[in-house]
Structure formats: C-alpha cells, structure tokens
Amino acid sequence: MIKTIKGIIYKIREMSGFAFVILKTKRELIQCVYSEEYSQFTLSEICENMSVIVTGEELADERSRTGFELRLVSFECLSKPEYEPPVVINNKEVATSLETLLDYRPITMRNAKESAIFQIQAGICRGFRKFFDDNGFTEIHSPKIVFSGAEGGSNIFKLDYFGREAYLTQSPQFYKQIMVGIFERVYEIAPVFRAEKHDTSRHINEYTSVDFEMGFIESFRDLMQTETRMLAEILEFLRKNYASEIALLKADIPTITEIPKVTFDDGKEMISKTREITDPYDFEPEEEKLLCEIIKKETDCDFVFVTHYKSSKRPFYTMESKDNPEVTESFDLLFRGMEITTGGQRIHDYNAQIAKMEDRSMNVEAFSSYLMAHKYGLPPHGGLGLGLERFTAKLLNFNNVRYATMFPRDINRLEP
Fold this sequence. Notes:
By secondary structure, this protein is of the alpha+beta class. It has helices at about 100-105, 105-110, 110-135, 175-185, 220-240, 245-250, 265-270, 285-300, 350-360, 370-375, 390-395, and strands spanning about 1-15, 20-25, 30-35, 50-60, 70-80, 140, 145, 160, 165-170, 185-195, 205-215, 260-265, 305, 330-335, 340-345, 380-385.
C-alpha cells in the first residue's frame, strides 16, 4: 500500500547500506526506511528539521507504536532549515537545564517528549469541554481587562486604560457569578494574571484557569461531587485518547472513584503529629505535601479535598458556614502534594454580601456592576477554579510547573 505523509524529519540514523528516517507528525514518530534499492533520491538530499511530504510503501510492523513502517520512495521538500538547532532535540530527552529548555522553547518543544506534554494538556482541555458540554454548562468568555481585581490586594497588574486605571484579571469570578443568573451553569478556560513576586517551582504570573460556576446548588459539597466526576472522566478520556503520549512520558494516570475529604482543622491536626504548625490559618507548601502523603497511605488516593477554610483567608464573596461563621463553605483540592483547585459556595443574598463587604471596610460602590446581579436576584451558587499548568505538572510528576507551561511568564521571564 502506497502512503503519502506530511511531517518534519526528526532524526536520520545511517546504517550499513540503508538508513532509518524518523518522521515527526502532529502526534507520532513514524519510522521510515531509506534504501538505494527502492528510494528514488539520495540520502544527502534530506536533512533533519526539513519539512517534507514523503511517499512510500507501508509495511506492517508490530514493534512500531504506529503499527507500520514506511519504505521511502520519494519526497518533496517544503522547507529546509538554515541553521543547526542550539540544543539536541531528537534524543529521548532534551538533556539541558530548565532555563535553557525555556530559552529555546520554540525549538525544544519539537522534542517528542516535550511536545507530548502539551498534547496531554490539550487532551485535558478537550476532556474538560466534553464534560462541561455533556453536563449542561455554557462556555463563556469574560473580559481580561477589568475595573477591579476579583480578590483585591496588591497582586494585580495595573494598566493605563485610555487614561483610566484598569487591571489584568486575577479571575473570571465576578463574571461567572453574574452569568449563573443567566445560564445557570457556566465554564471558562482562559488566562488569568497574578502580580505575585514569587520565584518558586509552583508559581507563575500568567496561567490558564479552568473555571466553572453552578447555580441552584444545595451545598458546596455539590461542587466537590461535580469536580470528582469531572476529573474521573477527564483521566479516563486521556487513557482512551492519549495512550501513545502517556506511554512515551511514562505517566502515572490515577483512577478516581471517590476523593477523601478532611476539614482544615482536622488536616492541621494530622500534620501536627509529625510537624510543628507555624501558620494556623493556611497550609504551607510542605504541609500540603505531608497531608497528601498521609492520605495516600490511608486511602491510596492521590487527591484530597480540604474543606472549611478560615473566613479570614477566603475572599469576600465566600459564604460562611451556618454552624460556625469563623469558617467558610469552601475547599481546596490537593493533588500529589500541591493545591490545584480552590472553590466554594458564594454569597448570593444582596444584603448579606453588602454586610460582609462593609465588615471588611471595602468600598461597596466600587463593585456596583458586580453587585447588580445580587441586587436583582441570584440563585444559590458556587464554583471553582483549577490551574491547568499545575494539574498537568502533577499529573506528569514534574517538580516545576514551568515544565508544563508552554511559554512561562514569571518575575524573571518575559520571552520567548
């Protein structure tokens, strides 16, 4: 069977009397065989990183991941590189530092493993959208230039917006809540921006947030149940549709049935048995790791929901618990030692929201467009935001979120 394939020549391995020519396509490395016996061109006419259309005879090969190899007959050159790559990109790994990997990102992502990371990430987004579409959510597109930060504080990027002060959005939070009053269930996959001067393995200043908001909920536990189903279906979607990338990356994709839940106070108590608690109001990164290790040993689950965070540590729109107003109807989801999700039930009553804002000495008038939705009635609702890069990094067991970020933006990096 004669087959024609478009791709980039990934690697040429010359042997005695023939050569293996590895062709890289969107998701596959295809082994082609060059031989003077049947190839109608000389080996010197092709080179690595050349974009080509190759034609050859397809032969079944059970040892190949594609199930076949191609005996090259002819090729057409579409473009030819002018320079050698600054790093070797066609080995199993790009053997260089993280800084060099990122400095040459347009080149290093051509490596099969590096590109597989972002195929997996694309698959995660496909899985999210499938779940949301199957469960009655409407996709929205909220502004990224806003009048105020959703969470306030100094960690927002200021802009000169035609002479007015504006900001890059920290979250689509306000717009999600507004749209719950229109579409009941909404979601968005989009960038958000945090002007935090962190230089850690877990922080970047622009990341992709996967957000959803649900109306007519009975409890914030409805949100955790929805996220559990969502993640279970996404991971199954990856296993079904991205098996080759999972195998290439040797990724350990967990199976989810239920996700354990612990309250914030109980989590701190568990941690205190092996580590001194220095911050009673929030989890430190090492405490997140330790709690996940404890839960893994007890339940064999890589995930854990932590519920009922202190009211002082949650945004002004978070609902307090009726049983204890010092804590909130909120949660974080930890995965393999890192927080990947923050969510909870929101205040939907206009007077209750005004009272909480006044209690925090906030300028209520500055939030008039947001409060318009509350003033004219909102159903009980809540939602969450999940960091796509963090989730990808922990899923693939990377020790730095930048490995799972195409073009990271942090306090030191503004290009490429």
